[in-house]
Amino acid sequence: MSAKSVHKVFVYGTLKKGEPNHQWFTKTAGAHHKFLYNAQTIEQFPLIIATQFNIPFLLHAPGKGHHVQGEVYEVDNQVLADLDILEDHPRFYIREEYEVLNLGNNVTDKVWIYMMKTFKPELLNQTFFKSYSNNGDHGLKYVERYLRDPSANHKNQLFGE
Known about the structure:
- The chain has helices at residues 77-87, 155-159; strands at residues 6-11, 33-41, 47-50, 55-58, 69-76, 94-102, 108-115.
- By secondary structure, the protein is mainly beta.
- The protein has a five-stranded mixed beta barrel with strand order 1-5-2-6-7. A two-stranded antiparallel ribbon has the order 3-4.
- The model has no long low-confidence stretch (mean pLDDT 91).
C-alpha cells in the first residue's frame, strides 16, 4: 500500500470499537482499516450528545470542553471515502487535521478528525463529555439511522435550518 493511500483518523463517538457505527470501517469489502492506538486531542473541544437521536458531536470551539478521548485508525482511501459519506463531509462535519496524543507512548500525531465548525451557539451550553460510550451512564442511547423518522430534521436543532 502506498503512503498516499493511508490515512490516520481519530474517532470519538459511534465509530469506536463496540459502538453502533463501527461497522462503517468494513462497509466496503477489501478496504483497509487497522486500529492503531487510544488517543486524546491536544486541544480541548466540547463533545456533546444532542438532538432527539442522541448523536455525539465534536464542536469546533477550541479551548472549551475537554481533551477528548478516542481511537486512531489507519484507513485506506476507500474507508476514508465511506467515513466521509457517514459524516456528510464537507456539508455537515468538516474533516481536518489536528494533533492528538497517543496515550500508549505520549507521542503526538497528526490525524483527521470530523468536527462541526458551524453550529448554534447554545449548543455550548450542553454537558461536555471527555469520552463517549453509547452505554455510558448519561443514559442517552444513539438512535441508528434506519430507526429514525425520515421526516425529522435534526439538523435544524444544530444549525437553525
